[in-house]
Fold this protein.
Amino acid sequence: MGASALILVVAHAAGYAARRLKQPYIVGQLAAGIALGPSLLGSVAPDAQRALFPAEIGPALTGFSQFSLVVFLFGVGYELDLKLLGDRARSAVTVAVASFVVPMAVGSGCALLFEEQLRDLGMPSRLSPATVVFAGVALSITAVPVLTAIVRENGLARTVPGVVAVSAAGLLDVVGWTVLAGVLMHGDGGGESLDWRWRVVLAAGFVALMLVAARPLLRRLLGRTRLEPSLRLALLIGFALGSAWVTHSLGLHVIFGALLAGVVVPREEGGTLDPDLVRPLHEAGSLLLPFFFVVSGQSVALDGMNATGWTTLAVVTVLAVTTKTGSGTVAARLSGLGRNDARVVGVLMSTRGLTELIVLNAGYQAGLLSRPLYSVLVFMALATTLLTQPLLALVGRLPDRPGRAGPADPPGPRSRRHHRNGDGSPTAPAADVG
């Protein structure tokens, strides 16, 4: 009980402090999770850390962590709506493809080029194909939930760069999760006895069953019956937990089952979200996610970082920022956005945060990452997310020059009006992507 109280109080206090510092709330929670692990508390007061987090409570914390992750990702899947693309479909698709392919190629290429350095971080002398591909996925992920929070807090929800960035991140996540599923399927499946080919077939059959049978069944059940909101919520969370159990049994992570469950849940008439479902999912996720951060933080250890680890952290962070911002900016510019809008899109695509941590946790559990390299990538995720807000402020101060695509955009990422299409014509305000 003491550990749970400490986790909740410290994590939410850190989230409040992060918000006061103009950072997303979830960034503070992530930092708190790392601080309560061996990296800070374990180094400063190891006896207190062992007393607060004895091995006996590990299974309970892991259970809370998995439950919070399923609830959170179920909500993400339910809110995923690619119809937001609208008139900006071309821009969003171009940005999504570039922001995935370029970092993916750089990450996988660096894993192959620097095998010797990675061996100093506990990786095998010969990296498996799954590990090489996973390195690319780790560099290419964009965190839609954190990005959406940054877009809201900067007044970008109804602007062209805000809509394009969120839509592109949603598309990129679909691709990223699919590639990650393939990587985990091709691995050993966490000790599963089934061959990966059989697991692929069973997983494809499960997805088809969910889309073909589960969705219309849920639509009939939820549409023709008048369930109490609490009973409806319990039914759907149970559905998400069951779906997560199936994907876990197939050698995949629970994240895929939770996301899939959210995607197949039918929306209200007109495609709107059910507030009686979204609100409690957000509240439960926000309350319980600190347990996931703390469990993840237990595997992050600064004392295991040598000179190679710190050098790798610096290089990976620079690559993570430059590949995402560069590819996103160039793609947005080529698709017709003005210079300022393209810069804002590029910066937003570099946001990682929680989604990156979920991916890294799945890779670590699957044996694709050593503990030192996992620590490096967790700190990279934190650093790139912390850099998003300062970089937005920086691009807002950069002078803009008229280009061939149209008149100069208004200065600053907070501007809401008079955004222009590539041909110079004014755009209509986009729907709120929050």
